[in-house]
Every structure is written in structure tokens, then in C-alpha cells.
Amino acid sequence: MLIGKFISFEGPDGAGKTTALNSVVADLTPQLKNMLVVTREPGGNRISEAIRNIILDRKNTEMDDRTEALLYAAARRQHIVETIQPALNSGKLVLCDRYVDSSVAYQGAGRQIGVDEVYQMNLFATAGLLPDLTIYFDIPSEIGLQRIMTHRTDEINRLDVEQLSFHKRVRASYLKIAEQNPQRIKVIDATQSKADVVSNVEKIIYQENKEFFK
Ligand SMILES: Nc1ncnc2c1ncn2[C@@H]1O[C@H](COP(=O)(O)OP(=O)(O)OP(=O)(O)O)[C@@H](O)[C@H]1O
Ligand SMILES: Cc1cn([C@H]2C[C@H](O)[C@@H](COP(=O)(O)O)O2)c(=O)[nH]c1=O
């Protein structure tokens, strides 16, 4: 039985998810201690991190779009089985940097495989496990990419170097997913200062998970 809470952080490249997540974790850890599980996709365990390295390696230029979609889904399956599901079963608050919405936006819309097909494939991979809450960091593609190219040049991956049109499709898809799922997805303006972004994220987490902060 799932008794914990599952929160995903989503957004285009360079939106500031990881930066905000690190600050939120530093702020929440004194209160939540070992009730908090922080993880990321693709990754979170040995097998999924190995798949991550294959997907994101800029040398893998010949990778087929559907192969890419399947690899993300395979990494996700292993992540659920090894990390997310056990944490939820023991009542933890799981904070995950990216999840299924990333596949729908990047592979479904960005790669133009089709959002419905990619979503259906992920229903198989996840057996229907969706986050209770998703915080979507919205940012124009140009600003997100600019942040990466200016500050994070050492970590630029195979997806980051896609054309601007790819990244614009990804953002448009995220906005559509958010519009279609207003109960689950809360949108944050990620062009704000780091402090304001973190404060907005924490407000949402407190509001939606009061049982963890008694
Ligand atoms: N609110 C902000 N204002 C300005 N710069 C920011 C802000 N948040 C993060 N940054 C900077 O933007 C860059 C990208 O941030 P970060 O790695 O957190 O983004 P991300 O959403 O996790 O990206 P990706 O998904 O591509 O890994 C970093 O150099 C970070 O310091
Ligand atoms: C989970 C997931 C991720 N992606 C893309 C999004 C990013 O470009 C990279 C991951 O890098 P990050 O620095 O950890 O954000 O992978 C994707 O295309 N599809 C997915 O399902």
C-alpha cells in the first residue's frame, strides 16, 4: 500500500529545478530528517545511473528516438522498484528531479514521437504510478539554455545541445500537460530570483503536505 507522498520537479533544461531542490532539501531536512527521500531521473540507483550515462553521452549521436524513449522508461521502472515504491511504502516524502512528464514533453513532443504513445508506454513502465504533486518550473527556452551555456558548460548533455525548436516544443508540451492536470501540477515562474523560486516551492510543499509538518 502506498502511504507516503510523491513529489516531482519538472521543467525545461536550465529552469533551476536542481538548484531549488538542493535548497529545499537543506531547509526541510531539520524538520523531516529521515522521512525525506531525494532522488532523480534518469538515475537514482546503479542500473538507472548506468542507463543515464548511455542516454546523455554526447558521443551517442546515432541513438534512435524510440530507443531513447525506451531507455528513459527502463531507467524509470528500475527506479520505481528500487527506490520510489519502497520509500512510499514506508511513509516517506519522495522528492524526485524529473519523472514521466519529462518523457511526454521531451520524447513525445520534443522528439515528435507522439505524446499519447509515450504516455502509454510509461503507463506500462510505471504500472500507473504518478506523483501526488508536481512542481513545474516554467521558463522561456532561450533563458534556460542561456543559463546552462553560461554557468554549467562542464555538464552539457546530449539533450541540452538540441536545437532551440526542440526545446520550444518541450516547453509548449509542459504547459499543455500543466493545463490538463491543474490538480496535480503547480506552475512556478522560474525566471524569478533563486530565493523567490525556493520560497514558492516551499509554500506549495507545506500547503499540500501538511501531515508531514505537524
Ligand atoms: N532563479 C535563478 N536565476 C538565475 N540563475 C539560476 C536560477 N536558478 C538556477 N540558476 C542557474 O541556472 C543554471 C541551471 O540551473 P539548474 O542546474 O538548477 O537547472 P535544472 O532545471 O536542474 O536544469 P537541467 O534539467 O538541465 O539539469 C545553474 O547555473 C544555476 O546556478
Ligand atoms: C527523465 C527524463 C529526462 N529527459 C532529459 C531532460 C534533460 O535534458 C536530461 C536529464 O538531465 P538533468 O540534468 O538531470 O535534467 O534528460 C528526457 O528527455 N526524458 C526523460 O524522461
Automatic annotation (TrEMBL):
<dbReference type="InterPro" id="IPR039430">
    <property type="entry name" value="Thymidylate_kin-like_dom"/>
</dbReference>
<dbReference type="GO" id="GO:0005524">
    <property type="term" value="F:ATP binding"/>
</dbReference>
<keyword id="KW-0067">ATP-binding</keyword>
<feature type="domain" description="Thymidylate kinase-like">
    <location>
        <begin position="9"/>
        <end position="200"/>
    </location>
</feature>
<comment type="function">
    <text>Phosphorylation of dTMP to form dTDP in both de novo and salvage pathways of dTTP synthesis.</text>
</comment>
<feature type="binding site">
    <location>
        <begin position="11"/>
        <end position="18"/>
    </location>
    <ligand>
        <name>ATP</name>
    </ligand>
</feature>
<keyword id="KW-0418">Kinase</keyword>
<comment type="similarity">
    <text>Belongs to the thymidylate kinase family.</text>
</comment>
<keyword id="KW-0808">Transferase</keyword>
<keyword id="KW-0547">Nucleotide-binding</keyword>
<keyword id="KW-0545">Nucleotide biosynthesis</keyword>
<dbReference type="GO" id="GO:0005829">
    <property type="term" value="C:cytosol"/>
</dbReference>
<dbReference type="GO" id="GO:0006235">
    <property type="term" value="P:dTTP biosynthetic process"/>
</dbReference>
<dbReference type="GO" id="GO:0004798">
    <property type="term" value="F:dTMP kinase activity"/>
</dbReference>
<dbReference type="GO" id="GO:0006227">
    <property type="term" value="P:dUDP biosynthetic process"/>
</dbReference>
<dbReference type="GO" id="GO:0006233">
    <property type="term" value="P:dTDP biosynthetic process"/>
</dbReference>
<protein>
    <recommendedName>
        <fullName>Thymidylate kinase</fullName>
        <ecNumber>2.7.4.9</ecNumber>
    </recommendedName>
</protein>
<dbReference type="InterPro" id="IPR027417">
    <property type="entry name" value="P-loop_NTPase"/>
</dbReference>
<dbReference type="InterPro" id="IPR018095">
    <property type="entry name" value="Thymidylate_kin_CS"/>
</dbReference>
<dbReference type="InterPro" id="IPR018094">
    <property type="entry name" value="Thymidylate_kinase"/>
</dbReference>
<dbReference type="Pfam" id="PF02223">
    <property type="entry name" value="Thymidylate_kin"/>
</dbReference>
